[in-house]
Amino acid sequence: MTQIRSTAVPALLAALVLPLAVSAAVLKTDVAHSKVSATFKQMNVPVEAQFKKFSATIDYDAAKPEAAKATVQIDTASLDVGDAQMNDEVAKKDWFNSAQYPKATFTSTSIKPAGAGKLTVAGKLTIKGRTADVTFPLSVKTEGARQIFEGQLPIKRLTYAIGEGEWKDTSMVADDVVIKFRVAADK
Question: Which of 4, 23, 45, 67 could be cross-linked to 56 through a Cys-Cys bond (beta carbons 3.0 to 4.6 Å apart)?
Answer without folding.
Answer: 4
